[in-house]
Design brief:
The protein has 220 residues and is mainly alpha-helical. It has two domains: 69 residues, Arc Repressor Mutant, subunit A, CATH 1.10.10; 142 residues, Four Helix Bundle (Hemerythrin (Met), subunit A) (Up-down Bundle), CATH 1.20.120. Helix content is 78%, strand content 5%. Strands 1-3-2 form a three-stranded antiparallel beta sheet. A hairpin with a 3-residue loop joins strand 2 and strand 3. The longest helix is centred in the C-terminal third of the chain and has 26 residues. It is globular.
Length: 220
Amino acid sequence: MTITAEGELGLSDLAYSRIEELITTLRLAPGHTVSEASLAKMLGISRTPIREALQRLARERLVSVMPRRGIVISEINVRSQLKMLELRRELERLIARAAARRASPDERKRFHEIADNLEKAAKKNDETAFMRMDREFNLLSADAARNDFVADAIGQVQGLSRRFWYMHYKQVADMPLAATLHAAVARAIAEGDEKAAMQASDRLIDYIETFTKATLTADA
């Protein structure tokens, strides 16, 4: 069977999505070594799209390709996470403002729905619903901003952020507060209020910084 260029691209995206999920949910633990062959067997995907996915994950610093050692899942470093948040603050603020300005009517409707669902998750302390809505919110915000350069830049830090959250949220996170803060950003974008969207984004990053610093004490 011949795989077209379009089909190969689809397999590469699929491989990326599955490996990224394995890493961010810690099923592939920090420091763990894998190979193209082992991942191909695990996922039932050929080695070429696996290789392309790993190159993308290496750019996002979720893996390191080590000659003669294989592919190593990157370690989690709190201080590096805090440095990354300096960049993320600026990117998230820009995305929130641009999305509030440029979102389509259908996207604004979905932002309202996401805000509602996040608020429900906060009231029920439903971590599964929060994580699902958080991922959709991130993807929709990047799309609605209509800026491919910013979308590419934020995409390179979101995997690291999700993995850090997944590792520590049960110990130090206030999930209802996190969900409520995300909902405020989504609501401001839905209403087209650029200033409110940026302010809500800053409050969210303020909380994420507090959460990140709290892990230093929790791990001590």
